[in-house]
Automatic annotation (TrEMBL):
Pfam families: Lyase_1 (PF00206). InterPro entries: Fumarase/histidase_N (IPR024083), Fumarate_lyase_N (IPR022761), L-Aspartase-like (IPR008948). Keywords: Lyase, Purine biosynthesis. It catalyses: N(6)-(1,2-dicarboxyethyl)-AMP = fumarate + AMP; (2S)-2-[5-amino-1-(5-phospho-beta-D-ribosyl)imidazole-4-carboxamido]succinate = 5-amino-1-(5-phospho-beta-D-ribosyl)imidazole-4-carboxamide + fumarate. Homotetramer. Residues from neighboring subunits contribute catalytic and substrate-binding residues to each active site. Residues 98-206 form the Fumarate lyase N-terminal domain. This is Adenylosuccinate lyase. Gene3D superfamilies: Fumarase/aspartase (Central domain), Fumarase/aspartase (N-terminal domain). Belongs to the lyase 1 family. Adenylosuccinate lyase subfamily. PANTHER family: ADENYLOSUCCINATE LYASE. GO terms for biological process: purine nucleotide biosynthetic process. It comes from Homo sapiens.
Length: 273
């Protein structure tokens, strides 16, 4: 695959910037295939948990869903979305078409944001998991560079004017210090991510209370089980229709901070000593 991926394909995120700057791995995490495959995985996790908690879902239905996670007919999904004017229901129908025995239990009790928002959170987590080791590697290589040039003299600058002598190694350590702060903040945001969970249409879980005939313990267990299946330690205790968009602000904030550090370190800008 070429750098940034094939941008006419459902296997890659499509952006005029991605082909120049993004890795194939990152493009795939934000691709349509990854997104809709994750929707199907979420539907499978939901069905598995509902079956475990006593809803009439058969092993045959579960196996049918498992066997078709990757079998996504993007043309059919586009046609269904045009007909239904709803992206999630279009993919419910498309998944149900290749899983006829399971069609009636796909998305059972769930809302669009069950797949949409939880998938966004999974993508954010997995994208951060790609970024963190890359940043750690940059810091490690800069540390080697700083050690090798610890005594190499260079002019320092202040107010964009030549000042006293310093060393290349010392200046590099300024960049490393900023990047270490970014690494810490990225890891914090990644570890603090919570799953939206199985919260119903407006966060009330009313549909699941109805499915489980008012058994709120089973509804709580359903939320916990799906959260664990998705690889999250915690879900939000309370949500509305969506997870709080403060999450997006926090993620964007630390990414912007990293961008500022990278620009300062490698953008030919002089920093006051």
């Amino acid at each position: 695959m070429a750098a940034g991926g094939d941008h006419g394909s459902p296997d890659s995120y499509r952006s005029p910037l991605a082909s120049r700057y993004a890795s194939p791995e990152m493009c795939f995490v934000f691709s349509d295939r990854y997104k809709f495959r994750t929707w199907r995985q979420l539907w499978l996790w939901l069905a598995e948990a509902e079956q475990t908690l006593g809803l009439p879902i058969t092993d045959e239905q579960i196996q049918e869903m498992k066997s078709n996670l990757e079998n996504i007919d993007f043309k059919m999904a586009a046609e269904e979305e045009k007909r239904l004017r709803h992206d999630v229901m279009a993919h419910v129908h498309t998944f149900g078409h290749c899983c006829p025995k399971a069609a009636g239990i796909i998305h059972l009790g769930a809302t669009s944001c069950y797949v949409g928002d939880n998938t966004d959170l999974i993508i954010l987590r997995n994208a951060l998991d790609l970024l963190l080791p890359k940043l750690a590697r940059v810091i490690s290589r800069l540390a080697d560079f700083a050690k090798e040039r610890a005594s190499l003299p260079t002019l320092g600058f202040t107010h964009f004017q030549p000042a006293q002598l310093t060393t290349v190694g010392k200046r590099c350590c300024l960049w490393i210090q900023d990047l270490c702060m970014d690494l810490q903040n990225l890891k914090r945001v990644r570890d603090d991510l919570r799953f939206r969970g199985v919260k119903g249409t407006t966060g009330t879980q009313a549909s699941f209370l109805q499915l489980f005939e008012g058994d709120d313990h089973k509804v709580e267990q359903l939320d916990k089980m799906v959260t664990e299946k998705a690889g999250f330690k915690r879900a939000f205790i309370i949500t509305g229709q969506t997870y709080t968009r403060k999450v997006d602000i926090e993620v964007l904030s630390v990414l912007a901070s990293l961008g500022a550090s990278v620009h300062k370190s490698f953008g030919n800008r002089e920093e006051s000593e």
